[in-house]
Amino acid sequence: SAPAAAQRGSFAEVKCSLCVVGIQALAEMNRWREVLSWVLQYYHVPEDLPPKVLELCILLYSKVGEPQVMLEVGGSWLRAQANQRLPEFRWLLELYLAQVLLPLGLFEGAEELVQGCALEGSEQQLALLGTVRQSRARWTRQEQTRSAAEERPDPATETALGVLSQKLLTMLTLLRRALRSMSNHFYLLPYKKMLLATFLLYLVVVRLDPASPTSLPFIYKLVQLFRQAWAAVLSPIQRPPIGD
Prior knowledge:
Strand content: under 5%
Structural class: mainly alpha
Number of strands: 0
Helix content: over 70%
Number of domains: 3
Distance between the termini: 109 Å
Low-confidence stretches: none
């Protein structure tokens, strides 16, 4: 009867208003994670949510950066034939696209949803599909820009590597010069004098008998010659200039 229907309508409005107040209270207490489960305790299935409650839930979870929470609930509500006849349907469809599907990059799902919904006239459907395609194009450009930025080497890293390479090259050059200097130094040593000193030392120690009186003057002369040769070997050597 009409009075019973009016009573049910009034009860539904009061219930919806209480849910809206409850959602706002949970959000203010930073208990927004409990909102959806709390609402479904009273409406049981997503398709029965009032448009105002669904709108508030979509906005809340989008604001806190968790739009995926409303992915299944919002899709179920929008696909219900009874809800597609409501005056709020067009607005909720646009809100669901803008706050849930498109930010998540679900462009194919968005196109399928728009094409499967009963909209008034093809112009509305084409407008929504155009919005989805524009969002997909922006998403693709952003991904390409991000990939190019990741592949591009960091200028600071390039500078550091350049400085390190220059230091390494300088060290190798200095090492090469040092090795060349050592090589030239050894080449300049009087090898003949060194060999002579070694031979004299060999004669003194091995071949001559120090106990023999006849060998003493000869040993004395050999020792003097050995000292002179050794002094010549250890004398400072003027190193010639070294070119690169």
